[in-house]
Amino acid sequence: MAKLSDELKNALKYSDIKIPAYISENLKHELREYQESALKHYILQRKAPHTNHLLFNMATGSGKTMIMAALMLDLFKNGYRNFVFFVNSTAILQKTMANFTDSFSSKYLFKDRILIDEKQVQIRAVRNFDESKDDAVNIVFITIQGLFSLFKDERENSLSISDLAKEKIVFIADEAHHLNADTKKNKKESELKEGWESVVNKAFGANSENFMLEFTATVPNQKEVVQKYEDKIAYEYALKEFCKDGYSKNITLLKYENADINRRFLGAVLASLYRQMTAFKNGIGLKPVILFKSETIAASNDNEAKFNEFIQSIDGDEIEKFYSEISANLGDMLYKSYECFKGLGESWYSKTAMLIRENFKSEFILNVNKDEELNKNQILLNSLEDDDNYVRVIFAVDKLNEGWDVLNLFDIVRLSDKISSKGHTSPTSEVQLIGRGARYYPFYEGDMRYKRKFDDLSNELCVIETLSYHTLNQNSFISSLNHELIKQGLIASEAYELVEFKPTKRACRIAKTDKIYYIKNERYKKGEIFKTKMHMQNLQSEISTLFMPFISDAVLENAVDFKKYEQKDHSYKTDSIKNRIDYIVFLKALNVLELGLKQINENFSFDSKEAFWQEISSVKVNFVREQKFSRENQLKLMIYILNHYKSLRQKIKSEYEVSEFRAYRLEQTGVRKMLKKKDKVKTHGYEWLYYDKYCDDSELELGFLKFIDGYKTKLDKKFASWIVVRNDGFDEFKIYGKDAIGFEPDFIMFAKLKGDDKFLGLECIFEPKGEHLAGKDGWKEELLKSLDSKKFEFKNDELKIVGFPFYLKNDNEKFKKKWDEFLNASLGL
């Protein structure tokens, strides 16, 4: 497929194109990087002569409708008022109409109030352009079949060819690969869709100022189609790029040896329930959805009945039997679920069965096999992520392979045992469906909201970044499916493998006998303060510094003028809030300040006010020793604390903020599993390196390892114990500079001074850097310099940081000087 001309690519590379404010400020969601790139390509092409027909070839799940919304705003700004949106499917049409025009829909694409040139603009669905308004984007929503029918048999109050001739119109075609029947010269398809493409071309050609925008994830590979679009491609963003850039879930295959369909039913609901419990444990609201896929409608209806019967009768014995039978082919997912459910305590098999019966009742099942059912339930299918959407399980054949926007689909279960190269459950059709389910579910705020964060598979949260495909273990089908998944870019190619990083003997000994601490800070976007556990700790830390005002029973019957009572001539006693203030008083203070759960959760993710109380009440603050704690005084003190919280949460320094560095205990000291390129993973003979393998990224890093090994004897003499971690993308070691840019140091050394039998109280941070990058990345060296000699407390322990200059290949005087000072420093460092 041809791409942009060299002239346009160069123009884009060297231009200072900005996305106009009338686009970015009127969209509900922030544009992703590749979406901005698509719009910049469009802006350049729109300026080129004779460019009024463009194709956006973008991956499923990449947000094509967001691009459409942005283009509508741009074309409105440039004088267009009338739009025709058409697609092959009625279901997709209804869904997209809601996305564009229903401001109450959770997937509405625009801001509640759209302003262009300081005038309010409406987005309206119309039947024909006689209904158009000049201050609106007027859209006729229609299927290709409907468009064809209208032009073959014009009807009153409907769109007509005469409408098209007198108005300049923007045509937006979704799933545009259906429009190429004539071009492909495919007799069978042209018999079914005869004239569709020619009718669309006739409509488009009715006015020379018309604009055509086509969108598809799949452009047919026929020579004639390739030639048709050769000079029309505005932007390409393939599925491989989409997945590689981290915008998709990871994909795992769960292969069942036992052909009993109940095994797949149970495996899916256990995986789904495990995801839900893991999310809840981490303060994340998630309702994972399961899709059961059958070969025929009759089989699907039968399977739904079997599922209901199975769920209603399930007991602890069934679950115990399942876990005793599962094979290694099922991988980590179900073994981890086993450990999770064990945490329910005594009689956990029975408790798990009860949870399954409650979460997968027949009322929570949606069957979409019939056209009338699909249309009727389109709202439910398009809002599966909403809090009030009850659907947990879907039974389908092939109605959802195209145009289905779903983020919280986490399990797809192939119920058919048949193997065929064609049909509803062929490898190709299954991959198409997996591609829809692979859309990422955003459960954290911040700049990484729509990207995977836990490719380190040892992190428990990777389970809610993973889609599981459950199938009978049939070698020919699995082989074909894997091939198609790799071809489409949904899973890593054969160049990648799941690598186990195992601790060396020294690392195991240190992890067993010593505590290891590290420092970390975090970046968050303005208005998104305190969403994470770390931000909660920041709040607790801030409150713990408070010196509470002295409040007498005799003063201030109404509003509290706290400044008047912040006296400095008192002695103080530190105590937790909950030891001095009652929960009922806390609730009253919330009412006084009009802080409901909704307001609290602008900054947190608590399920209840009680959960917020549990976090905040454990903080110790400084109370005046002679303070009396009557109910009235408790209320005034609690209002003081919550007022401090209110002002703290509203601090906004810049577009991004960076938290203070804090010390944390290294919890992940065992085996880590990560996807890595096979040819980059190396074993080594360095017993002082934490893991038995590392990724060989450069000769410079290999040189640094040899450098450290050359000082092994001196380091052994200086320290009671020491260990070096090669940072192969481990999340806990990522830090941020003052401009909120992320930095992942390549090597971290932890050491324990001789005479200190408590813990490894020293963290040294190293970064090998090629000279050609040293200037560009100078801020990283400044960050390490700013951390040098800093001390951080963790409970009763103290961690000291040594930040080194870059380790360079040639001019390494600064590093060696610092290294010599480090080796020759006294034990106090």
What does this molecule look like?
- The chain is of the alpha/beta class.
- It has 4 domains: 6-237, Rossmann fold (3-Layer(aba) Sandwich); 250-494, 3-Layer(aba) Sandwich (Rossmann fold); 505-520 and 661-824, no CATH class; 527-651, no CATH class.
- Helix content is 39%, strand content 19%.
- It has 34 helices and 32 strands.
- It has an 8-stranded mixed sheet.
- α1 (6-14) packs across α3, α13 (261-281) crosses α16 (331-342) and α26 (583-592) crosses α29.
- InterPro entries: Helicase/UvrB_N, Helicase_ATP-bd, Helicase_Restrict-Modif_Enz, P-loop_NTPase.
- Pfam families: ResIII.
Which features would summarize this protein structure in a list?
single chain, 829 residues, alpha/beta, Rossmann fold, 4 domains, eight-stranded mixed beta sheet, six-stranded parallel beta sheet, 34 helices, 32 strands
- Report the sheet with the most strands, covering strand number, pairing sense and barrel closure: 8 strands, mixed
- How are the strands ordered across the major sheet? 3-4-5-2-6-7-1-8
**Classification by helices and strands:** alpha/beta
- Hey, roughly how much beta strand do the residues contain? 15-25%
Indicate the CATH architecture of the largest domain: 3-Layer(aba) Sandwich
Please state the average pLDDT score: 81
User: What's the total helix number?
Assistant: 34
Shape: globular
- State the low-pLDDT regions, or none: 186-194, 527-535, 553-568, 650-655
Q: What is the CATH H-level superfamily of the largest domain?
A: P-loop containing nucleotide triphosphate hydrolases
Into how many domains do the coordinates divide?
4
| CATH class placement of the largest domain | Alpha Beta
In whole angstroms, how far apart are the ends? 61 Å
How many β strands by DSSP?
32
At the fold tier of CATH, the topology name of the largest domain is Rossmann fold
Radius of gyration: 31 Å
Residues in helices, as a percent range = 25-40%
